[in-house]
Structures are given as C-alpha cells and as structure tokens.
C-alpha cells in the first residue's frame, strides 16, 4: 500500500477520512491508514461525523464523476491493502441534490476542496 502511495507524485495528494465519534475499530483503522498515508508523504485530514450512523464497512466516495487521476492511486492502494472497500463517484452532486430535495437529509459532507472521502463505518471487514 505504501509503495503505491509513495509512487504517486501529484502535488495535491491528500486523503480525507470520515469516522464516527468514539473509540473502536473504525478509529483504530483510521489511525493505521493515516500512518501509511503520512509515511508515503500524503497530507491527511479526518472529520468526525455526528448526527448520523455510518454504514458498516469502508467506502471511498469520489466527489466528481471523473476524479483527478491521482485518486486512482488511492483506490489501488486500498485494493492492495486487502480491505473490502465500496467505491462510488459523483458523490458531490448526489449530496447537493439530496440536500436540495430535503434539507433535513443527512449524508457525509464533502467540502469544495475534497476530491474524495474515505468513510470508515462500524466493524470494517478485512
């Protein structure tokens, strides 16, 4: 995993994690993944998600239908980790559409500067 991430030389390489509050498997996994990304030279940002229950497992949600090419390196690295990861693209327009239809809809927020977010729900499976 580290080798794939280290080989990516895009200047904007950054990873964003979303985890529930508390202390458990998702938080331990975030710390482990954070360490690998940082050792490979990536910037890391983690947000704690409150007000909703994150679905079990790991999901990588790309903001745009066609994310920057370097996002593919993250997908490859996660695949190499052996973790079961669900992938989706076009999350930003989906999030905005859902919020416009129902302002009370709750989803994982994604900022304008985020290319993707890795969501770590309860009980991730290796």
Short structural summary:
The protein is an alpha/beta fold and 126 residues long. The chain has helices at 2-7, 25-39, 71-81, 91-101, and strands spanning 14-19, 43-48, 58-62, 85-88, 116-120.
Descriptive notes:
The chain has 126 residues and is of the alpha/beta class. Helix content is 34%, strand content 21%. It has four helices and five strands. It has helices spanning 2-7, 25-39, 71-81, 91-101; strands spanning 14-19, 43-48, 58-62, 85-88, 116-120. It is globular and about 40 Å long.
Question: What is the topological layout?
Answer:
Layout: H1 2-7, E1 14-19, H2 25-39, E2 43-48, E3 58-62, H3 71-81, E4 85-88, H4 91-101, E5 116-120
Parallel strand pairs: 1-2, 1-5, 3-4
Antiparallel strand pairs: 3-5
Continuous helix count = 4
Mean pLDDT: 92
CA-CA gap between termini: 14 Å
**Contiguous runs where pLDDT drops below 50 for at least 5 residues:** none
Q: What is the helix/strand order?
A: HEHEEHEHE
- The chain-level structural class is alpha/beta
What characterizes the major β-sheet?
5 strands, mixed
Beta strand %:
15-25%
* Number of DSSP strand runs: 5
Choose one word for the global shape: globular
The figure for the number of domains is 1
Using the CA coordinates, give the radius of gyration.
14 Å
**Portion in helices:** 25-40%
């Amino acid at each position: 995993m580290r080798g794939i991430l280290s080989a990516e030389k895009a200047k904007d390489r950054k990873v964003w994690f979303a985890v529930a509050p508390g202390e458990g498997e998702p938080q331990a996994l975030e710390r482990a993944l954070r360490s690998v990304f940082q050792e490979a030279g990536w910037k890391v940002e983690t947000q704690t998600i409150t007000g909703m229950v994150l679905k079990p497992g790991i999901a990588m949600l790309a903001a745009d239908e066609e994310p920057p090419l370097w996002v593919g390196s993250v997908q490859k690295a996660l695949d190499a980790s052996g973790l079961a990861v669900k992938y989706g693209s076009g999350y930003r327009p989906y999030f905005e559409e859902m919020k416009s239809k129902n302002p009370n809809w709750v989803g994982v927020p994604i900022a304008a500067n985020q290319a993707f977010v890795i969501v770590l729900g309860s009980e991730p499976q290796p």
